[in-house]
Amino acid sequence: MKRRDFCRLSLITGAAVAVPASRLIAASDASSQPGSTDLRAVKLSGAETSIEGAAVRDLRASLSGTLLAPGDEGYEGARRIWNGMIDKHPALIARCADTTDVVHAVTFARERELLLAVRGGGHSFPGYSTCDGGLVIDLSPMRSVVVRADDRTARVGGGAWGAHLDAAAQKQALATTLGQISNTGVAGLTLGGGFGWLARRFGLACDNLISVELVTADGKVRHISERDEPDLFWAVRGGGGNYGVATSFEYRLHPLNPTVLGGHVDFPAGQLKDAIEFYAELITHGPRELSVDLSLAPNEDGTPGAQIYAVYSGDAKSGAKVLEPLQRFGKPIKNTIGQQSYLAVQTWFDTPPIDPTHWYLKGGFVREYSSELIALLAHEFQPAAGTSMYFQSANGAVADVPQTATAFSHRGAIANMMLFGLWKNASQDESGRQAIRAFWSKLAPFTDGYYVNLHDTDPKDKGTDSNYGPNFSRLAALKKQFDPMNLFHLNANIKPA
Ligand SMILES: Cc1cc2nc3c(=O)[nH]c(=O)nc-3n(C[C@H](O)[C@H](O)[C@H](O)COP(=O)(O)OP(=O)(O)OC[C@H]3O[C@@H](n4cnc5c(N)ncnc54)[C@H](O)[C@@H]3O)c2cc1C
Description:
By secondary structure, the protein is α+β, with helices and mostly antiparallel strands. It is 28% helix and 24% strand. The chain is built from 16 helices and 23 strands.
């Protein structure tokens, strides 16, 4: 895909609970006179509850950050996340300024058994980082980045975007693997795995973690690493937001020249099959410094096509040699390959942090490009303005890590295959989702599990148990130990054993 073109339903411990808007809007009465009126809210169980005005006032007073309720100035902007399709109204949004704020907010939610969502960068496709009627812990004020060039590490706040870490690290000609959109949160991305242009060379974002500061459901602040609480550290490297709120991350950085060789080569519909085959060959045998992704989307002239995106992060001379076959292949209608700043590459696919577009995605890992899959893509998929596909490359250093060494369990994949639908209006939501699901039913047999960061709420999808393979029972046991009430459940949820 070309990603630049890229119900009120809360999942409550597995059950879908619809919350009438009128009831939540009534809660705004409480905010007009903070502390004087009870606030209507929703519990973990889906039952309605009310929060005493005095308790809201006390929580507000305890925070260095801000607490927003419906009707408060700033609430409307704060309730939105990236995907324009997600339109939810939390009872409270705690914009936490520090770890102590997070402890207060987690404790508040646990003691009242409140529905709870956690937000880093707000890039959850299905909208897990907000909710109707619950409490949102929003870490957007916590975006500090401290790079230590001497030992090549960075300490990053739980609300930072990839752009914040990339910019600070590149000042020292350093980098680590982060996603391909600069305004995606490092938190959600890293906890679920973390693919990007550098993954084949340096591993996933979670493979580059040294330690994490985590507030668990009991309100305790834990500093977890290979040495301290190693079980929990194992679980957060792929287990998503299931185990607590990550208030900061410590990453290992790597030397990276601020200029890399990269760009895209675009092919018309007539060369689609050849381009897919060529891409599959290139990514299967390319060196680790090379990351190549395939997009099936309209070309700039609006006609269906294929675009091969490539980034070579090693030295320029070797890169020119490695990319020579791509430069010579077929009859492209556009070729932008050249020296570019790594920071510019990281913004190629950016969309606004709050995007009015309605997005829907299905995804799954592929282990090989079989001739059947290539034929299906070439003959049955029609790239169009509202429908595109993208293959994000994996393998290389990602596959060096044994499957059970971290919770992330899809080490053998060659790529993450994604099918996107996008449209403008809520009236198209249902038909748009159905159309994507219909074509995905043809692609799904070629996949082996899915990326938890792109988990979908489609009830027909497999649960997380089989997706985590041999890691699931350990994850479920740790979930029971650290979050027995499943407070952190708005995610690809691992139920307590
Ligand atoms: C446009 C777009 C491009 C993307 N590109 C890539 C890519 O290149 N590579 C890739 O690997 N993924 C990519 N993703 C997927 C991305 O990794 C996930 O959507 C991820 O959840 C986003 O992180 P976030 O902090 O912005 O999410 P949010 O929406 O803030 O949170 C999503 C979930 O993450 C958890 N979470 C977030 N912050 C915290 C925290 N501080 N502590 C504990 N749990 C937390 C919670 O469970 C939350 O529900 C992309 C997504 C989008 C929308």
